[in-house]
Design brief:
The complex is a heterodimer of chains A (242) and B (327).
Chain A lengths: L2 E6 L5 E7 L2 E8 L10 H15 L8 E5 L5 H18 L2 E5 L1 H10 L8 E7 L5 E7 L4 E8 L1 H9 L7 E2 L1 H5 L1 H6 L16 H9 L17 H19 L1
Helix pairs in contact in A: 1-2, 3-7
Chain B lengths: L1 E5 L4 E8 L2 E9 L1 H5 L6 H23 L8 E7 L3 H18 L3 E5 H7 L12 E6 L4 E8 L2 E7 L5 H11 L6 H9 L12 H4 L8 H13 L2 H32 L5 E5 L6 H14 L2 E4 L2 H4 L4 H7 L18
Parallel strand pairs in B: 1-4, 4-5, 6-9, 9-10
Antiparallel strand pairs in B: 1-2, 2-3, 6-7, 7-8
The chains are: A alpha/beta (242), B alpha/beta (327).
Bound molecules: zinc ion.
Amino acid sequence: MTAIVGFDTSTADTVVAATRDCDVAFESRREPIVAGGRPVHVNALLTDIEAAADSLGGWRCVDRIAVGLGPGSFTGLRVGIATARGLAQALRCDLAGVGTLAALAAGVQARSGDPAKLRLAVLDARRGEVFAGLYATNGRELWPPFVSSPEELGGRVAALPEPPPAAGDGSIRFRDILEAAGALVPPDSDPVHRVCASRICALAADEGHGETLVAPVYLRRPDAELWREQQARQQKVADEQA
Amino acid sequence: MILAIETSCDDTCAAVVDGMQILANVISSQARIHEQYGGVVPEVASRHHIELVNPVVDAALLQAGVSLQEVDALAVTQGPGMIGALLVGLATAKALAAATRKPLVAVDHLHGHVAANFLEPDPLDPPFLCLIASGGHTLLAAVREHSRFEVLGETLDDAAGEALDKGARLLGLGYPGGPAIERLAKDGDEGTFEMPVAMARDPGLDFSFSGLKTALLYAVRDLEPSELERRRADLAAGYQDAVVGQLVAKLDRALGRGDWKAVALGGGVAANGLLRMRVAELCERRGLRLKLVPRELCTDNAAMIAAAAQHVEPVPYPGYLEWDVAA
Ligand SMILES: [Zn+2]
């Protein structure tokens, strides 16, 4: 029997769950107080995590802590991962990291009567870009998470042997492009578009998915680093011309 | 016994302090990394904090020879500072405290700089006047009690350390600018360049360094490249003298307005040799005790956060679960 407390803070929602084997003992979702406003991760996450641990009988009954690694908001990711690491450090508890896109794709998988063999997870990466990943029905990662323009993603989707169902706020935002490429995007209100903490727990229970290296998946480097490299390149060109 | 965490700027810090005795004070500096950017980049700092914070906490506990279970409370810097950097420390401290059901203390970073003086050996107890100058803050604090301080004056624009960093950049020196300017200034004559003294003569207790920076910019611009190379040391000396001169002038003025018996220095700029010398002279002239904490307690560290936390009411579990940073 494996009891897991899992959570994710890479999107605007603060989601927490507790599972014992296949049973969901606790599940919560908190949205920003103002739609589109600051997420409540730092305020709500630990309270909900404690409630999740209580639902399993307290921390002494928890075998593993699972956390969404992203990609997503850098600050959000760090709140979740710092919390997970702090808890695991204090409790000397097993810690597993789960890809947030894999968890989204697993949500698609759970829908019954869907014969497709592929699952596409797409998050809005801001700046007109998307974070995306492609998974097989057995959860195998076919396209490791990447960041791209929606058009580039559309091009890759159009070249797939079969049209994949897609989930995530990025698939809603760029529905036109993805549908034109053949992706099947459920209605905006479908819960499949939102990261679910019980899926984080489910993937962490599966040994093949839990990462022992629990570090944020940023996919983007800091702007300052890119800017510095660009300056260095320009300097090199200038030096060569001189 | 308190385990404290500090991540408000570019140093990842953890310390274990028993009473006012430091058992461990671990600082993982990112200065080398930020050197390449000529300043602290918030996103880069936050990425390093999350990599380092747990190992730094482990190292502090190991060095102190205590387990997490043995500490009475945890403490963490809540602000001011860079929000993303603060969040890593706060989320970590909240999780460590919650998992062990221990109380947590939220500490004001500036109270930490003041409280560095309370630490053994040779602690300084209130009342005293404290000048805190670093890359992030510049203020004069009247410290009459352990648990609080009153800001008598603060910078209206750049912090003193920031002014030194910007000056260093204008002179083609590296980051952090303070030590670079101090090294170069040793070969220079501070009297050969006129730097504005308006702020030093201003009757208030607030600081302003932007005028100095502009004056240096013009001086650098007006010199031929070969002449600039020859006069760089003089410029560095003149600029450092003006920054330190303003700090000391305001400290002197504040001392004149109260019945103070002791002075303390804090913040990274407190490591500056010229500032230490001038303040020592000032204290000697006024017959005051001068407390200079070691360098590792001047710059950001978690021992000072633990020292401040000893004088703040700890919040028992679960009262702190919803805490946010106060950037
Ligand atoms: Zn500081």
